[in-house]
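YM 10:42: HAD family phosphatase sequence, as discussed on the call
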Amino acid sequence: MTQRTFTAVCFDMDGVLIQSRQVIELAWTTVARKYGVTVDQAFIDDHIHGRPGGYTLQALFGQFDEQQRVTIKQEVDAIEEVSICALVPGVAAFIAGLTGRVPLALVTSSWRARVDHVLQQHDLTSVFDCIICRDDVRSGKPAPDPYRLAAARLERQSDECLVFEDSVSGVQSAVSSGALCIGIGDDPTLSAHGALRTYADFTALPISQGGVDTHLYADGGLFISGQVAQRFARS
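YM 10:58: structure's back
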């Protein structure tokens, strides 16, 4: 049986906090069509979802010069930034149950303005103790840097963090940092890349609150200490 304690919880944003898959596809494919670039579903699956924007930009528009790519990326970002995305089922209740009991981080390949829009839209602006965006690290996911930085800002070791991710690159980033990672979504390959378990959404995640002295992952389920950590409690 796999059993590990954790002292912080980190969330990816797209696909974990919000259901943004269709919005991201729409943004990239709309701009691609404008510039005469053909995109099929295989390309979308391999080169858009779970990939840093810079990677997708090069994969789709590598034939354009640097200034054109800057303009193209601004157009993609403009579509994504103001789009409305629903929360992943169960994530709001899960976060509410963690608040005050364990520090929380949002670790995303997105950018600050879009993150602010998402958090304001869902009244989550005061939830996270730490937010790591694409501009905060030199190397984004799948490199371990984003999760290592989140752990440092939470004053934790990386191996004390529990991470929720929905993409291969995100899982690789979390696992290579030393964190414990649980997959969210329908990608069956996440376990092969280091996710201990994968759940469709947070309504399927087995959770027990209280009755333990420390936060614990044990054989697929989470046990959350009932003790409030005053250092991170909010008024």
